[in-house]
Design a protein that fits this description.
The chain is built from twelve helices and 18 strands. With about 375 residues, it is of the alpha/beta class. The strands form three sheets. A nine-stranded mixed β-sheet has the order 3-2-1-4-7-9-8-10-11, with helices on both faces. It has a seven-stranded mixed β-sheet with strand order 13-14-12-15-18-17-16. Strands 5-6 form a two-stranded antiparallel ribbon. Helix 7 (about 125-140) links the parallel strand 2 and strand 3. The longest helix is centred in the first third of the chain and has 26 residues, at about 40-65. The termini are far apart.
């Protein structure tokens, strides 16, 4: 699909509607039938777009994904709609009315901003990607608020906009890029653009960004959706130096209070597994303080406590057994308890969950969770169930 234009014609749109729910296993038969009445290139483009739309449902939902246009990279790299909507709400609540969306991709963030009532200039240097963004704004009835421009973001004058949003490319020819200065454009350029914006800015970065790479005048926010860490955002014009973890749906936000590292203590009755955004934001101490707990090990983000204190920022498990790591003992214990549904979690252990599951061969009607970790430096197993 090198050109979206044929798919935007009445014939192309009708063909897209016809192949919308095509089963991948039936593609060859469907293509053979449709090529009797339509150009082969158009049929291939429509089927390819149908596949991309099916993949995009997880990020954009059935209704939007069924109307939007995608590129393979666009599906992979675009922001999940729930996360984009949350960010857009923050901007709207801050009184921002116009945003330059730099490196806009297929337009997922521009769509969320426009739906929040914000005027958007969406910029991408790739012609195919910019065409998809333009088609998406039109398909969702947002073209009045979204202007799409094909250009190098470093050449764009953003002076007429309240804020900028920058989502640098974090993938190259060899895969994921971990050095922020190797982003395209580099993080240093994005920070300079953010500081020039009159009302503020948001820079989307990888959740693994080192804390020392966060500028002193920025707020750092790690966001998870449904328990999966999705991104980190550097905010300018909000609360310089603030660090927070935000969990979606919700949103629920945990703000750093600068607490010292929790003390290491023996395993209690409950184990708390903090949300990934909490861990990335280095806010495990805040969770430990909420539940009155400490750490199983100084280097591992498992919190243990004697009492159950429900918190949205961690999943609680009631622990029934604490054993030194020993596969034979674990197998015997699971057999004795009739555990056939075994969830294996690990942190600080080299053992792979599937490898352990094969060795213990769980059988029976009951369920359990085993944590492979360290307790005060020693390999250990904690067995329990969700509290």
């Amino acid at each position: 699909m090198n050109d979206l234009a044929p798919l935007l014609t009445p014939e192309g749109r009708a063909l897209l509607d016809e192949v919308r729910d095509t089963d991948p296993a039936q593609e060859l038969a469907v293509a053979t039938r449709l090529r009797r009445e339509h150009p082969a290139e158009l049929v291939s483009a429509a089927l390819g777009q149908a596949r991309l739309r099916q993949r995009a449902v997880a990020k954009f939902g059935v209704e939007d994904a069924g109307r939007m246009f995608f590129t393979p990279n666009g599906v992979e790299q675009s922001t999940r709609a729930s996360v984009a909507a949350y960010r857009a709400r923050r901007m709207a609540e801050a009184g921002i009315t116009s945003v330059a969306d730099l490196c806009c991709g297929i337009g997922g963030d521009a769509i969320a901003l426009a739906r929040a009532g914000i005027r958007v200039l969406a910029v991408d240097r790739d012609p195919r990607t910019a065409a998809a963004a333009r088609a998406n704004a039109d398909a969702l009835g947002l073209s009045g608020l979204v202007e799409v421009r094909e250009a190098d973001v470093t050449d764009v004058d953003t002076a007429g906009f309240d804020a900028v949003f920058v989502d640098p490319a974090r993938r190259g020819g060899r895969g994921r890029i971990f050095d922020p200065e190797a982003y395209s454009p580099p993080l240093s350029w994005a920070i300079s653009a953010a500081r020039r914006a009159p009302r503020g800015a948001a820079l989307k970065v990888a959740p693994g960004i080192p804390h020392e790479a966060v500028p002193e005048d920025a707020e750092a926010e790690w966001i998870s959706d449904g328990g999966d860490v999705k991104e980190a955002v550097l905010w300018f014009g909000t609360e310089p130096g603030a660090v927070r973890a935000t969990l979606l749906p919700g949103p629920r936000t945990l703000l750093s209070r600068g607490l010292p590292d929790p003390q290491v203590r023996p395993p209690g009755r409950y184990l708390y597994e903090p949300d990934g955004a909490v861990i990335r934001a280095h806010l495990v101490a805040e969770v430990a303080d909420q539940v009155g707990g400490g750490l199983l090990d100084a280097t591992i983000a498992y919190v243990t406590a004697d009492a159950l204190h429900p918190t949205p920022y961690a999943t609680a498990y009631e622990i029934t057994d604490h054993l030194p790591f020993n596969v034979k003992k674990l197998k015997a214990l699971l057999r004795e308890r009739g555990v056939g549904i075994l969830t294996v979690k690990k942190r600080g252990s080299a053992v792979e969950p599937e490898e352990l599951r094969k060795k213990v061969k769980p059988q029976g009607p009951h369920a359990a969770t085993v944590f492979l970790t360290r307790v005060a430096g020693a390999p250990a197993m904690l067995i329990g169930h969700p509290a």
